[in-house]
Each structure stands twice: as C-alpha cells, then as structure tokens.
Design brief:
Oligomer: single chain
Structural class: alpha+beta
Shape: globular
Radius of gyration: 19 Å
Strand content: 25-35%
Number of strands: 15
Helix content: 25-40%
Largest sheet: 9 strands, mixed
Distance between the termini: 34 Å
C-alpha cells in the first residue's frame, strides 16, 4: 500500500509516521483552519483564491500566519512533487499549536502545519448524466461558517444524515432560507437565471462561488446572490452543487422529489463545460 510523503512542521515524512502531541489544540479544541486545493496536471487551480481564503481564515481566528505566500507555495510544491498522480487534491491543516489545555489562546505558541495530498476523485460521467439525490435538513451549525474551520462536527452530522438516506448531500436551511450543503455550495436555476445565497457568515464562500460568478458573466447567464426560500429551492428548474471535488454537479432529486424535470438541465451543462475549459486554460 502506498505510504505518501506528507509535510509536518518542517519535515517530509511518510503519512503512517506523521504524529502530533495529544495537547495540540487542533486535537483538543478543533482550534485551527484548513484549505483544500485541486491540482490538474500538476498545476494548482485558482491557487491565488485558495491562498487568500487560507490567510483570511487564519486572521479570523487569530493564528499568526507561519509562512509567506511564496513559502506556502514552495511547501505545497514539495508535497505535490512527491506524489505520483498528475491530478491531486492537496490538503493544508494549521492549528494554533501545542499548549497546556486552557480555552483562551496561549501565548508564544508555534502553529502546527500539516500538508498532504491524494489523487482527486471526481464524479463519474454516469453520475453526472443522472444527477444526484440530496436531502434537506435544518442548519444547526454555529454562526461563523465563513471560517474554514477544522471544527466540522456540524458538517459531519449533515453528511452522515445524507449518507443514512442514500443521498450525496444534505442541503441545509436556516430559518427557512437556503444556506449550503455539508461540503458544497448550493445554487438554484429558475428561468435560465442562477441564484445563490449571499456571501455572509452563514456559508463558507467556496472558491467555486467566485468561479461560478465568472463563468455566468462570461456565458451571459444572469446571476444574483440573495436569500432563497425553501419553497424556491423545491420549485427550481435546476439545483447545482459546487465544490473542489464535485466541480459543478446537478441535483436531480431532493427528499425524493424531482428537481425540475428530474434530469440535469441546460444551465448545468453550460457551466460544466465552461468549468472544464477553465481547468484547461
């Protein structure tokens, strides 16, 4: 079994040998942030956007950024170069570091930095052709969803809710309005126009959020960000999921009910094709 090399606190080491102290605040409190960057043909996709979000997340929870952007890129390249796959998904994980267990931030602590990568696994052509099933649920997570926090229990429970119902995602609503899915942004299409929730603290602004905005503008597809009701989601012509691993993925059923005609629609097809062009650019 392949034991890939990973980066941990200044050292490249086999994944099976990478270890952290039990008093690491990421382990004790979930006190840290992460970032995931897709790589196609050994080239990072939208790296500038991912690094900007990484820096925003670090600042939002008061972790001093341990590296410059160039240093981060060199570390990522080191890990990516050690992996045989051309298409990868690199994972960055930064915690506040190791300190005596106490809730408030410790002083003079060195952040823990972990980087690994794996081959990227994208939905198959058959899945894309059929669309995927989702379920709906109330969004009961905390109110700082814009931070890409490693404290993901709420998202884990949402993903498990979907898994137990043989669905790909749980689409969440807070006070009757669409937020996001457990690990995806959610979009609706009505009369040829794309709509998504506003970029606020109730969703994690996926890097694909900005990409969808760009692709819609380039393709002449109307797009707006606003509060979207549960009724609007269920009455949509199309519902789309976006994430690094899903790219753009059509939803064909929610809670057992068909979305639109129950098959992927024309706006999905146009955005998916444009997404592939953006990858190849």
């Amino acid at each position: 079994m392949h034991d890939p090399l990973v980066y941990l606190n200044g050292v490249m080491t086999p994944l099976s040998e990478a270890k952290i102290p039990v008093l690491d605040r990421g382990f004790i409190f979930g006190d840290g942030i992460y970032e995931v960057i897709p790589i196609y043909q050994r080239q990072l996709f939208r790296a500038e956007h991912h690094m900007a979000r990484l820096f925003r997340s670090l600042a939002a929870i008061g972790i001093t950024n341990p590296h410059t952007k160039d240093e981060w890129m060199a570390l990522i390249d080191q890990v990516v170069s050690a992996h045989p796959a051309a298409d990868q998904m690199v994972y960055l994980h930064i915690t506040r570091g190791v300190a005596k267990r106490a809730h408030a931030f410790p002083k003079d602590v060195t952040p823990t930095v972990f980087i690994m990568t794996n081959p990227i696994v994208l939905p198959s052509a058959a899945v894309r052709q059929a669309g995927v099933a989702c379920v709906s649920m109330e969004d009961k997570r905390w109110l700082r969803c814009e931070i890409k926090s490693i404290s993901l229990l709420g998202n884990v429970l949402a993903a498990q809710n979907a898994a137990e119902q043989d669905a790909v995602e749980s689409i969440m609503f807070r006070d009757g309005f669409l937020t996001e899915a457990s690990s995806s942004n959610v979009w609706i299409v009505k009369d040829g126009a794309v709509m998504g929730p506003p970029k606020d603290n109730l969703i994690l602004e996926g890097i694909r959020y900005g990409l969808i905005e760009e692709l819609c503008t380039a393709g002449g597809i109307p797009l707006s960000a606003r509060r979207i009701t549960r009724d609007e989601v269920f009455a949509a012509d199309e519902v789309l999921l976006t994430s690094a691993t899903k790219e753009v993925l059509p939803v064909s059923r929610i809670d057992g009910l068909p979305v639109g005609k129950g098959v992927p629609g024309p706006v999905y097809a146009k955005l998916y094709a444009a997404y592939q062009d953006a990858k190849a650019a």
